[in-house]
């Protein structure tokens, strides 16, 4: 009997999984409400193949780094197969320039040193650069470049053309079934023997195995009851905003700072139709794609490209803005593979590295669904993950002072995710948090439900920006 397989979610990971099933000869249904034109985070991503340049001093998870490096090794051959099947070439530029400047300070330089150490461990190569070696670099005087390297094995590609090529490759297989409708409900049938997938038009489809690859919407899609049964850390969205600008300086490689403020720093990536400039990362418990870029977010990005890369971009045309929510988990690790519910699989929570990890995630999912010998160790299994990390509720004073202070600076500092009127936003944050504490004492320690949810479920570095976005809106208009 042929196994009925469905993939819910058509970002890069969902498409990659669907494509993997098809290339191995299996039938597969992909639920893609946009019919190939997905509004997923991966479609509006920068497309940096940054297996080294994503590493920082405080983010050296050896398992995650190894997974990204392993996926990096197969990425080009995977991409070539997709291009051959679809006939659509993915726009790509070789190499990454990573620079530290006076804005990033010691943190930037330490991050580059960590990158160099990992490159050397892998037997890979890099080049030290002087600012004069970078022809399109002309920052403002207060953003002087202090260190720079070139990583030839990395690359930048146009995420838009990757999605087009992946969808074209999927459509080339007769066993592909694309349902151009949104999924509203996923429920087990007859004690988990199969799964019912309901769409907005009221149709219900039954499958033996369902893979949820719906990005930041995955928890909401599964529903409170089913997600509770999975016993997983909660998810949240990271709002990523980027600009598409005229590439007036003909930048032909990725140029970026190390990761900053919980995001991927200031970066520019050549695209087929312009220059991608990114990116923000604002944590949110309500990752809906209804809101576009705000004026403050655009201001932050303009500051990066004009002041930190080249002043001449002040004269470049703005071609558009991009906004979507990256999927994150409270414990900081992706959910990949079989859950504790038979026939239900997850492939989400990849944050900024979903596209890079997609080839290996696809192999893991196919092997687990079909009961095959694993080709890749799954170090991100979504089983027994609840309570596997510390939350802000259990943080010591020293942890709060160091981690929380850094997080507040990230969200409200001059180069954080809220760059405008920082004094007022910080004042609003403090005032509202004090207000909540006063109310809690007056009402027998009853605190706002959403605030307690954050305290109970998220580590300090995530809880602080989530609390910030949750409470500051209540108070800001009063200041």
From TrEMBL:
Pfam families reported for this sequence: DAO
Show the GO MF annotations: oxidoreductase activity
Matches recorded under InterPro entries: FAD-dep_OxRdtase, FAD/NAD-bd_sf
Which residues belong to any copy of the FAD dependent oxidoreductase domain? 4-367
Pull one GO CC term from this UniProt entry.
Answer: cytoplasm
Q: Tell me the keywords, alphabetical order.
A: Oxidoreductase
Q: What's the superkingdom here?
A: Bacteria
Stored PANTHER family: GLYCINE OXIDASE, SARCOSINE DEHYDROGENASE-RELATED
Output this protein's name. Glycine/D-amino acid oxidase-like deaminating enzyme
Source organism of this protein record = Sinobacterium caligoides
What broad taxonomic lineage does this protein's source fall under? Bacteria, Pseudomonadati, Pseudomonadota, Gammaproteobacteria, Cellvibrionales
